[in-house]
Amino acid sequence: MKKSRKHIFKTALLLSVILLSGCSTQGILAIGSDKTLPRIKSVKHIIGKSSVGFEWPAIKDSRVKGIKVYRAIPQNTKDQKYTKIASIDDRYATHFVDRGIASNQTYLYTFTTYSLLKESLPGTVIKVQTQEAFEAVSFIKTYNSDKGVIKVLWNPHPSAEISGYIIERKISGGKWKYLALVKGRLMPEYIDKSAAIGYTYSYRVIARSSSGVRALPGEASVIKVQ
After folding, report:
1. What's the CA gap between 139 and 114, in Å, rounded?
2. Which of the four pLDDT bands, split at 50, 70 and 90, describes residue 31?
3. Is-above-0.90 flag for pTM?
4. Cα-based distances in Å from 18 to 69, 108, 144, 147, 194
5. What's the CATH code, domain 141-224?
6. CATH superfamily of 2-129
């Protein structure tokens, strides 16, 4: 009996994807589900540019050990595929923040509660759309200031939420690579002294907020190092 329970427990831990029929909570395929465990049906949410915060009522059932969070991108298929993104090992928890997701993107979320070996049926499916990304930095220009010295200039971003700028560079035909982080919204300049004379480079500037949210990339400025 102990061996059988151990096998079920390991199988349950491996299950990180569930299937829902359409956008409803019917047709779920789960291992070790328990219909008597409480379902999370009332969920409030707050939307950001690259994050979503959730709040639900406190769970009183002492059998519950924690909460699992599932997320999906809507698909035009019969069965909607969900992926487990978090397991909160505390039934007293009533908040969760999903960070680092795409801006201006629609997501579906659902929550379950779990006991030692069982998991509840999924709760209400919450459909959210993150806010649009910060607009790109404008007027990016590059100049040869001296031999092997490139000056990059741009207009300060209009949003007060911006706290700095990511500078990226690439050689013609190459991939963008991180070069530096310029701190301060009102600092519109970067000086690159690592460029090789005779090579052609592209530079771009990406504004970043104080919470780490990146804006859309600005247009690239191309220059040959002299």
Report:
1. 53
2. low
3. no
4. 11, 13, 56, 59, 50
5. 2.60.40.10
6. Immunoglobulins (2.60.40.10)
